[in-house]
Recover the amino acids of this structure.
């Protein structure tokens, strides 16, 4: 088969960041060694980030705004750690998914003009949404790490702040300790930001390219009995169905079976991650929106969580839309089979066999290929609206009981300070 590798911005960006995290295929021993090192560095900085934010939450407990701010960061980091843990366990299956996509999806094979148009449409959509989500995710990280640069301008060395609170004495604000801590926090934030978007970018690209293969398969099934353009009655009815055409039909069946098995592999690798994201997305959107609209929020925090909120919305749309495309394009194979010119086939040996086999294809296609939240429910665009509805409900409840929560926070802060003073005395 003549295959030509296609330059694709979405695949290039996704592969680049996946290599940084260490979850990508390696072609030789040297690449495997660097992949293991990158994976170790990713896990190390992710644990550094959760340690810093956990300590920050301990000391910020009682301050309502700071607690929500740190809590939102901790939820993001925990989601990243959970993705890393699941993909580390299923690393071999993940690499098999990547290899199959590189071999069968990301190369131009013997496509005709219509099939190339389908691939190009999905390619442009992938490039736009992947770059958009990457921009918002990296923009959040940039806002985090550049905020101290502007805030520390004109301050003494002892009054400088870090991107994330350390809660140590002021000696960490002096050189060279400040620079060392700053670099560590920047690397941690950068690694968490990459892990936050690269795995979802990969799933989005894989889903859309798989949906594109289903759409190509649908086009081939529509024309399996002759070109379905309304001018094939005499051609099909007066000629027996040849063996070569039946072989092409069997090729389509094999492709259909391969796509179904591939979707099962995606389900095995990502179903648990899908469940975690569905459960936490509404909470993240709620907290981000609250921090953006809160009156006492500083300008820096408002900019940070505006980027984070836009990233969450874009991530949720990509995630649910790609799953929805996969579901509908896999089910549309049944309609394509029925719309083919099977009724014009002669009632000879191969005509009868083909009619019978087409019935099996229709029956199988009625069960869609989809990603589920660990088997509880399939993910589609309805999931998107459901998550937004829950997020708005939580936001409304949070605003409704805001005054009571602030009172409880003040009481907790006061009791915490009393316990701390008693402990120190």
């Amino acid at each position: 088969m003549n295959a030509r590798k296609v330059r694709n911005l979405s695949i290039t960006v996704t592969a680049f960041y996946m290599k940084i995290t260490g979850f990508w295929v390696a072609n030789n021993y040297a690449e495997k060694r660097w992949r293991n090192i990158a994976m170790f560095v990713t896990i190390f900085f992710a644990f550094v980030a959760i340690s810093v934010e956990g300590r920050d939450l301990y000391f910020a407990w009682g301050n309502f705004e700071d607690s929500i701010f740190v809590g939102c960061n901790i939820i993001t980091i925990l989601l990243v750690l959970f993705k890393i843990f699941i993909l580390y366990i299923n690393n071999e299956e993940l690499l098999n998914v990547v290899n199959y996509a590189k071999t069968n999806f990301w190369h131009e094979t013997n496509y005709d003009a219509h099939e190339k148009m389908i691939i190009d449409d999905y390619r442009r959509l992938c490039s736009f949404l992947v770059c958009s989500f990457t921009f918002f995710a990296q923009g959040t990280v940039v806002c985090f790490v550049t905020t101290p640069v502007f805030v520390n301008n004109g301050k003494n060395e002892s009054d400088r702040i870090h991107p994330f609170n350390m809660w140590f004495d002021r000696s960490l604000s002096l050189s060279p300790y400040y620079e060392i801590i700053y670099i560590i926090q920047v690397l941690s934030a950068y690694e968490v930001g990459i892990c936050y978007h690269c795995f979802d970018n990969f799933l989005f690209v894989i889903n859309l390219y798989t949906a594109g293969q289903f759409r190509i398969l649908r086009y081939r099934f529509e024309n399996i009995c002759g070109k379905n353009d309304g001018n094939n009655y005499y051609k099909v009815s007066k000629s027996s169905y040849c063996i070569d055409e039946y072989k092409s039909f069997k090729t389509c069946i094999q492709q259909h079976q391969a796509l179904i098995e591939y979707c099962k592999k995606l389900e095995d690798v990502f179903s648990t991650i899908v469940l975690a994201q569905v459960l936490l997305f509404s909470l993240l959107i709620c907290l981000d929106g609250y921090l953006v609209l809160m009156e006492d929020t500083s300008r820096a925090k408002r900019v940070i969580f505006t980027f984070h909120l836009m990233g969450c919305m874009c991530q949720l749309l990509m995630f649910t839309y790609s799953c929805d495309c996969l579901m509908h394009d896999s089910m549309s194979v049944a309609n394509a089979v029925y719309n083919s010119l099977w009724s014009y086939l002669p009632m000879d040996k191969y005509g009868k066999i083909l009619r019978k086999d087409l019935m099996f294809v229709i029956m199988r296609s009625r069960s869609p290929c989809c990603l589920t939240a660990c088997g509880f429910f399939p993910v589609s665009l309805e999931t998107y609206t459901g998550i937004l509805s829950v997020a708005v409900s939580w936001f409304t409840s949070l605003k409704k009981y805001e005054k009571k929560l602030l009172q409880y926070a003040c009481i907790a802060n006061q009791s915490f300070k009393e316990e701390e003073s008693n402990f120190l005395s």
